[in-house]
Amino acid sequence: MIHALRALLPLSLASLLGACSLLPEAQVIDTYLLPPSTLASQARGAPLALTLSIARPQASQALDSTRIAVVPEGSRISSYKGARWADPAPSLLRDRLVSVLRSDGRFPELVSDEQQLHSDLELLGNLQSFQSEYRDSQPYAVIHLDVQLVDSNSRRILASQRFAVSQRSADVQVASLVSAFGTASDTLASELIDWLLVEAAKSGKTAP
User: Fold this and answer.
1) Percent of the chain scored above 70 by pLDDT?
2) Which residues on neighbouring strands pair with residue 130, listed in sequence order?
């Protein structure tokens, strides 16, 4: 009996190893950052004597995710298989805005909401779109951001604005689409800076 069991043992192990080989392989996930900003990193005017805080935009569950969202048609939203953002889309956009504003130089006292420091003004936002959309079979990177400039002391809303940008992707590859998101983010950041300068000046908090 013992000899029979010993003879069966190698066969049992071989069967188990064979079963293991039938398990599906783990899917390879490509993780993407936004490409480095191409905006000129130099100040084009006198710096403002105020502290500005940039908050992480609020977003729906579909966008507050590392998935790279795509709207292939109509109102159906999906995501690209095997590809992810390095951080959720709201965090990526906030960090891009902080980086571009810091490089611009006209808001030298700049913080993000993660630092929890006192500021004169706060930029709050609601990310409505951060996705790929197909138009005439061509993919576009689409970003819609609603923002509010708030007085930190009084909590009064000083100004509101919607920014909507889109950038055509060179092709349907995810890497090309990521590049388009980088360009679209730069365009939005540039428009946002111009708007902030005007509204900050109106706030009466820019005097040294």
Assistant:
1) 82
2) 143
